[in-house]
């Protein structure tokens, strides 16, 4: 039960957000379909759509095709106006930063990435990030209206800062204030994999899923989750540190202070160390060329990830698990092995199967996820949160 009162203004703003998200979820719906989906009255939908069209966020794309002809007013199809706004996404990994410019419908128009030196000082990092962002945003033909940032580490969403990224040597990085003071537009920050989960909800195959888990295999392993149709975010730290769940008690020491963490065995960093290759692309190429040792390495990583995921499934029994990152390449055996092991290990999965699949957003899932944060909070939920 929510104890947040709904005054008239807040209710109107909430309804506006629901309508915008419904247009994405339903894919070119009519006013009648939005009213039915949101349980709002046709008159309310008409008023909200009128305001959104005046803001140029929504457009009419013509009459419904293939539907039953009825007397009276034409049935008009609605869509988001992709040309109305541009949103920037910043995906901060341990080894590189990815930048993207996205439309309201999740299409990445421009993409750029740059490497991060090992153990870069956080102040030097901020200076480099701002410089790279300045150059990148200048290439957009339409000015960017907001910036979303998805980052590794423990992220304080409410205050817009990285609490710590111990493996990077960072602590209390005031990221949102630094970026917003330079660019003077709304900026939102969250853990990068929570952003990816939001992207799967807005644009991916989880639009109509109420309970799902998003897993990202990068230098580490992270997760984001929707429960009861809400993005899960715990107080302060946000949670979601799948890579630091214990795979092997008393195993390989981890920078977090524990031993046997999953990411010491099945992440990009672990694979690079084990196979002594210069990049994860080299490992993937080796797998595709039939290198038996590398194929076994990908299979073993799938088994290790599945062992930890089984505990999550037995606890929460989500409907779907989306896996992102280069190691989720469908030509590798990793996803197939995760699916096979979960089927074998989880007794709840035997009662109702959990769908396990690779993200359709490919390598751009990080910037789409980051930009999705700004899309939700600065565009869809504009004036609703009272923040930034």
Automatic annotation (TrEMBL):
Signal peptide: none annotated. It holds the Pfam family ROK. GO terms for biological process: D-xylose metabolic process. Belongs to the ROK (NagC/XylR) family. This is Sugar kinase. The keyword Nucleotidyltransferase does not apply. InterPro entries: ATPase_NBD, ROK, WH-like_DNA-bd_sf, WH_DNA-bd_sf. Transcriptional repressor of xylose-utilizing enzymes. It comes from the Bacteria. It comes from Fictibacillus arsenicus. Keywords: Carbohydrate metabolism, Xylose metabolism. PANTHER family: BIFUNCTIONAL UDP-N-ACETYLGLUCOSAMINE 2-EPIMERASE_N-ACETYLMANNOSAMINE KINASE (PTHR18964:SF149), ROK (REPRESSOR, ORF, KINASE) FAMILY (PTHR18964).
């Amino acid at each position: 039960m929510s104890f947040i009162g709904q005054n008239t203004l807040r209710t109107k703003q909430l309804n506006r957000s629901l309508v915008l998200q419904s247009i994405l979820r339903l894919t070119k719906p009519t006013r009648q379909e939005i009213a039915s989906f949101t349980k709002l009255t046709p008159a309310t939908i008409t008023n909200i759509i009128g305001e959104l069209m005046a803001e140029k966020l929504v457009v009419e794309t013509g009459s419904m095709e293939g539907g039953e002809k009825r007397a009276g007013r034409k049935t008009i199809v609605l869509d988001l106006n992709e040309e109305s706004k541009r949103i920037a996404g910043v995906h901060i990994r341990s080894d590189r930063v990815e930048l993207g410019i996205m439309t309201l419908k999740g299409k990445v128009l421009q993409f750029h990435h740059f490497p991060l030196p090992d153990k870069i000082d956080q102040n030097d990092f901020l200076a480099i990030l701002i410089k790279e962002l300045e150059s990148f945003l200048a290439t957009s033909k339409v000015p960017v209206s907001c910036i979303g940032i998805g980052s590794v580490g423990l992220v304080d969403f409410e205050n817009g800062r990285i609490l710590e990224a111990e493996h990077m040597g960072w602590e209390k990085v005031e990221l949102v204030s630094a970026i917003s003071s330079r660019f003077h537009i709304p900026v939102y920050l969250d853990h990068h994999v929570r952003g990816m989960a939001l992207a799967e909800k807005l644009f991916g195959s989880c639009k109509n899923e109420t309970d799902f888990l998003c897993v990202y295999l990068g230098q580490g392993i992270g997760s984001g989750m929707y429960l009861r149709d809400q993005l899960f975010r715990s107080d302060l730290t946000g949670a979601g540190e799948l890579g630091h769940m214990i795979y092997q008690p008393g195993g390989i020491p981890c920078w977090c202070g524990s031993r046997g963490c999953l990411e010491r065995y099945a992440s990009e960093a672990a694979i690079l160390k084990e196979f002594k290759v210069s990049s994860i692309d080299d490992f993937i190429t080796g797998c595709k060329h039939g290198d038996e040792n590398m194929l076994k390495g990908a299979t073993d990583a799938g088994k290790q990830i599945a062992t930890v995921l089984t505990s999550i499934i037995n606890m929460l029994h989500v409907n779907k698990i989306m896996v992102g990152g280069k190691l989720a390449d469908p030509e590798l055996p990793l996803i197939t092995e995760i699916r096979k092991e979960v089927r074998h290990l989880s007794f709840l999965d035997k009662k109702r199967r959990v769908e396990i699949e690779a993200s359709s957003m490919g390598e751009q899932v990080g910037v789409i996820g980051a930009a999705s944060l700004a899309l939700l909070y600065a565009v869809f939920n504009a004036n609703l949160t009272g923040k930034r």
